[in-house]
């Protein structure tokens, strides 16, 4: 497939409520290429999760156009173009870790042998070999979130959409999972859309950082990262990293200034 993986042109999304319309997104223009790691950052209410949900056809734009792999987001959903990782791991407590990962494969009608092979593969990808027979309550929060990522990877979609997957975790666990996500991205070469509130997380993970401002949600800056693809955690002390983080912070501050 040639052309952008995700493309938004003049995209707007307005929710109709009992208190009147809520303009969640306005005039969003963005191109995401194959293999990009794109982070969306901004304050609460800026529409970053709404935009991710629009890509996944969980919300539908009221203005402009949005294509995923050259087709509508609804068609991309039916073509199983993406996996989605939510803020909470969302694992069923009565199913084992392997059973949770297997669930979308069961729904999609994969053979039992194929299900087993895919579950083993993605458990290895997220460093959870040997934990397939455990139940969610037997795993730490970080391990549960890795299992959630494995479930989203199980049917091998080209796009992985992640909505603040590490927001509830402590900083040490978060750092570890950031490292693991980068390794996973390098191994799978997937296109990743990642929502975060954390400036260091956005800068550390991304090839492209999309800074958004609220009311209505719009893009105020798109920063192409000059950092190398392989990034040890201590790269966060480098001059380049600090300069990018400063630009993100300035973009967020400018976006807030537009509200006044």
TrEMBL record:
One of its GO terms (molecular function) is ATP binding. Residues 6-235 form the ABC transporter domain. Keywords: ATP-binding, Nucleotide-binding, Transport. Belongs to the ABC transporter superfamily. PROSITE patterns: ABC_TRANSPORTER_1, ABC_TRANSPORTER_2. This is ABC transporter ATP-binding protein. The keyword ATP-binding applies. It comes from the Bacteria.
């Amino acid at each position: 497939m040639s052309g952008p993986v995700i493309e938004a042109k003049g995209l707007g999304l307005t929710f109709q409520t009992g208190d009147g319309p809520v303009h969640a997104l306005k005039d969003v223009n963005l191109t995401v290429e194959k293999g990009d790691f794109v982070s969306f950052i901004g304050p609460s209410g800026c529409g970053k999760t709404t935009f991710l949900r629009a890509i996944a056809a969980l919300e539908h734009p009221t203005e402009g156009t949005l294509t995923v792999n050259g087709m509508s987001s609804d068609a991309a959903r039916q073509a199983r173009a993406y996996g989605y990782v939510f803020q909470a791991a969302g694992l069923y407590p009565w199913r084992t870790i392997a059973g949770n990962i297997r669930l979308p494969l069961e729904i999609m009608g994969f053979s039992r042998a194929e299900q087993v092979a895919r579950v083993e593969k993605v458990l290895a990808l997220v460093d959870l070999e040997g934990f397939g027979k455990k139940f969610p309550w037997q795993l730490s929060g970080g391990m549960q979130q890795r299992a959630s990522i494995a479930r989203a990877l199980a049917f091998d979609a080209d796009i992985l959409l992640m909505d603040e997957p590490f927001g509830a975790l402590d900083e040490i666990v978060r750092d570890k999972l950031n490292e693991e996500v980068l390794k996973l991205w390098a191994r799978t070469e997937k296109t990743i859309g990642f929502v975060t509130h954390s400036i260091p997380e956005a800068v550390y993970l991304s090839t492209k950082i999309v800074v958004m401002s609220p009311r209505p949600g719009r893009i105020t800056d798109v920063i192409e990262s000059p950092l190398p693809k392989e990034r040890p955690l201590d790269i966060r002390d480098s001059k380049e990293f600090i300069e990018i983080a400063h630009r993100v912070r300035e973009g967020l501050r400018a976006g807030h200034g537009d509200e006044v």
